[in-house]
Amino acid sequence: MKKLTCNLCQKEYASPQSLCNHRRSKHKVYRHHQNDDNMSSSQQKNDDKIHLKKIPNIANMCTHCNKELSSRQGKYRHMKTCKVRKELELIEANNNTDIIPTSQPNMNCTTNINGNNNTTNNAINVTINNFNADNTSYFSDKFKERIINYFASNKYHLPIPKVVQNLKFNPNHKENNNMKITNIKSDIGQKYQDNKWIYCKKSDMIDESHKIAILLVEGWINQEQTQTQTQISQDAVTGFKDYLKVNKEYIRKVIFEEINKLGYIYYKNEIENELDD
Q1: Per-residue pLDDT tens digits for 138-180
Q2: Where are the domains positioned within the chain?
Q3: 221, 220, 212, 229: which is closest to 139 by C-alpha?
Q4: Range list of β-strands (E), the chain
Q5: Stretch 109-128: mean pLDDT, rounded?
Q6: pTM of the model
Q7: What is the overall mean pLDDT for the chain?
Q8: Which contacts of 219-227 are long-range, i.e. CB under 8 A and separated by 24 or more positions?
Q9: What end-to-end distance do the CA atoms of the chain give, in Å?
Q10: Burial of 164 (0-12, 13-18, 19+ CB in 10 A)
Q11: Are 246 and 265 in contact (CB under 8 A)?
């Protein structure tokens, strides 16, 4: 009888059932098909590329980059020098000064006081806007001018991520917190659409937020050009037009990744604040 070989460790087994049991117990993998046990070794090898998943040991995963270590001790050693952690801390430090403060309380907020076991809990309920229905009224002329001037100096990596940060990840305007990036490496994100949270492809969600920011900046530039009392440099206009022609690979690798990091930092800080409360 022809033996079946595990393509992960090359061990041989007499039956498909024995092979599958070995793979599930030793390699922590499983299939989505009901006919797993009837697959030949060659079918198994080809099918692994799509349908096999490794079950991670969450206790040994770095909370910053999701790298899985062999032990908890290894995890803590890695986290001290984790490059993603250092990048996130640096971005957080550099961008905290660029958040637009709110000048007045959010009118969409209501305060509920719930009594439970003689304990008073103050909770603020915010009405979240749908993903494509953001409140943009709080952007100041000074902020708009600073964003536009970034294009004059060809600092392409700065303006659009800062617009998205102040629009979608602004702690002072939670009504616009309608996109969530809960895992910096995951392909899945969440956005508030049709008055409910839905899961979506994160790259598409970031692309949508990027387009929203582009339209905002384009509107600000057009507004500045029509106002006789405001002078906008031709370098800024040219820089913005040049940005629209930038290589898509640069946009994906640099701009989208910056938005991804900003979103994850915001989510992480919000979770920590909730735990502190």
Answers
A1: 999 999 999 999 898 877 788 999 999 999 999 999 999 999 9
A2: 4-55, 60-98, 129-276
A3: 220
A4: 4-5, 12-13, 29-30, 53-54, 109-116, 119-126, 179-180, 188-193, 196-201
A5: 48
A6: 0.59
A7: 76
A8: 220/139, 220/144, 220/147, 220/148, 221/148, 224/144, 224/145, 224/148
A9: 65
A10: buried
A11: no
